[in-house]
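User: For my dataset I need records formatted as: sequence, then structure tokens, nothing else. Please produce one.
Assistant:
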Amino acid sequence: MRRLSLVLLCASLSSACDDSEGAPVVPPPPFTQSYPDAGPTPDGGSDPTPWACQRQAVVKGAPMSLLADLQLAMGRATTSNERTQAIDRFVEQVEAQGGTPLVSDASAGRQRVAFFARGESARDTFVAGEFNEWSPTATPLSQVLDTDLYLAEVEVPRTGPQPYKLVKGGNFFEDPRARNVVWDRLNRNDVGQFNSLVYPDAQDPTKGRLTAWYDVRATALNDARDVFVYTPASYDGPGCPSLPVMYVHDGNESITRESFVDAADSHYKARPQDSAVLVFIALPSQDVRLGQYTFPPALAPGWPTPRGDDYLAFIVNDLMPRVESGLRVKTGPQETGISGASLGGLISVYAGFRAPEKFGFVGTQSGTLFWPHDGEVDRNDGNAMVVRASADPVVPVRFYVDHGSPSAGCTRDGEQGADDCQSNLQFVSALRNKGYGVVHVNEVSGAHDWAFWKKRQPGLLCAFRNTDAKECGL
């Protein structure tokens, strides 16, 4: 039985063997701990070679030749432990060389693609995509020998980026080992989902791309969350530029409700000089949003314990080092922004006052700036961020503030159509009285909703890169 299983494994990997023969030897792009777009050139020089930074070279899955290597290792293995060790090495190599799925060389006669999952939970898992008309049962992952590796190898035409998902029990989900993703364009009016990509290098070069970092650990919060890195079209340009970076809260919803990625693509196409890397930070769950986006004291007894300081510690201590070491981004507060909508706007303003040495620009859209100063419900104590703007020493931070308001003026926060305009107007006034640079946008009849925040997103992105509001038409 074992001999037959080895024959079946070899058959499933035969195309990988074919691809490895006679293929041109191309040195792999350099890579760092987190992402292969940064780091030194192979010869240690300062100028990156073309293949070291451009989309067609670094934005792809791991090579199919790794399956051939696995085949040889499995053929030599005589024990279950040795087979497990071979699979461990295979998975590590896939991660280091581009993630899943594995793809044939573009010059190969047959464009073979391999998908895999590992662990007992991978049993009865399928892969679905445009290549099989999104069938939830047509392409199963089959167990390899007596191991915990489940694999499917299929032909996928290289006609453009090919979206796919894994499927189990009829439920579709992202491939957790795939780095390159796109929004699946299904607005669930909640946290959305992504498609993983085959041939991500074939995406429209005039638009940006998304890289998924799944389960990024937050030390101070003792949890993990997904992060989606948007790199604009210019990032993949021949000049291999380093770009400013903006950290964006509600990272999943910002992309899958009313796509901020679409807004960024449109703005950066019109004004490529404003291009920046956008780091969309998702939440572990919506249940922790109120706690992680607020600061002491708690709003009232029984409300979640404020964890905003721990959330900012995650960004500064865990996430920023990974971004700055693994991506071509500029560093320093003047090249670094932080932004969000609603509670995301509140925590962004808090971050600006709390860590001006890290964030030189703050963007808040319909920010929850009525958050009280002393934690007492319905107490008119000036609102926490208004108090800080008025009373604290000036910090070197520029602000962008937008919100909506009723057509007949600004009513009190919380009233129909107010979009928290009262506290936002107070905050803008306090900033200007202290001499801060601030761009203010009041959209009459603008609602507290993702569609309005997306519409105003280009103004925020422009203000991040330009100190003169007139440059942005604001």
